[in-house]
Prior knowledge:
- The complex is a heterodimer of chains A (142) and B (328).
- Chain A is an all-alpha fold and 142 residues long.
- Chain A has one helix at residues 11-111; one strand at 135-137.
- Chain B is of the alpha+beta class.
- Chain B has two domains: 52-134, Orthogonal Bundle (T-fold), CATH 1.10.3980; 182-328, ApbE-like domains (T-fold).
Amino acid sequence: MTERQPARIPAHVFVMLSASTAVYALALAGIAGVQSRDDAALAAARGPATRAIEQVAAGHDQLGDRLDRARAAYAAAAESYRAIGGALGTLEGQLGDLGTVVAGIDGVSRSLPASVRLPAIRGSVSGGGVPATHATTRASGG
Amino acid sequence: MHVRAGRALGSPLRLLVAAGDDGPAVDEAWSEVLRAFEDVNRAMSRYRVDSELTRLNRMRGRPARISPLLLAALTMAERARRITAGRFDPRVVVDLERLGFAAEPQAWSGRPPGDEPVIRRAPDGCVALSGPVDLGGLGKGIALRLARRAAARRLAGTGFLIDAGGDIVTLGRPDTTDPASRWSIALEDESGGSVPIATCELPEAWAIATSSTRLGRRVDESGRVIHHLLDPRTREPGGGTLIAVTVAFPDPAWAEVWTKDLFLEGPQGIGPRARARGLAAWWLDADAGLSMTPAARQLTTWVRSETELSPRAASAAFPLPSRSPARG
């Protein structure tokens, strides 16, 4: 019985394998380098857009805050209006009462005489002697 | 009361100062008053041969360069002519001279027909008259306006009164300690009586002026009454039976204008016209006596024709308070 010898791999195969592996490694390294540069350029190109998006987001947050405040102010105004509404109702009732009173006065005034003879009273016009004066107006010849 | 007295524009001139020291401030105010009247006299007098107005009148309508003061006066005269629809018109010199109210002769033509303005302005700033002009009464009112303004600068906060022969301006009060005090003015009886026909009190910074036929009034051979208040529309003495018109108004120059305007309306129209303008006006009619507008009544403190309503007679019907002793 003969023992079968394991097959021997020729040396040039190892050389070929090593060479191809080295070539592959070099190619891979080159591709990685190119990709790294592309990634850096892309990140630089996206920078302004990213900052703008951040600013828009911040503005949106501020707008949201303002809307919240406006909503609160509206709620307060609505509450005040509801409170005033009651006072207006009261005022309307008082105006109605006043209208009734005015109508009554109008009726009374129509029943009054057209003129009333008043007694002579002593006011600023004196019926006595000439008051003391500072000067006299007269024809000045002009 | 501190008093300074003199003469200006042919009339007595007085300054009454209510309070304070009778010192340099009063003297300076009096100097300012005299200066204002002299400025007007030099610019507007028809009685001076060397006045600007006389020189301009004698230009016979040719353009000339004049002072800002005379230009302002002529501009105001033209405005007064328009506002009064021609009742006030300074172009009556021809008729004044014809009726014997001459000063330095300077008339060359009558009032132009139509609605021609008193002055025309040339592009080079010169001014031409459309007819000879008399600024007598208006000039005195302007002088009082300038004098009040000038005196007020010297008498800051002190009440005073300037009386130019019966045309009067006031400022402030006669008693600085009494906020209710007012300058009290008598209205002379222009029909010849020795007792005033009424008295009134002027608000602060007001004026009062009277136009009357008393001075220079005469009757000509035909029995026609001649006086110097001419109606520019008829070129004859106007006013009918009216003897005098007094107007109280804030500005003395316009008070002068209104007295002429109302006087020429005559006895029938004067009341409605004065009331329509809201003027404080008193007028004396030879037939109807004294009348006044509601605005004048508010300023009136005493009326001679109501003296008959003696306090004694009034108290019989309506007892008066005992703290007001009856007078007269």
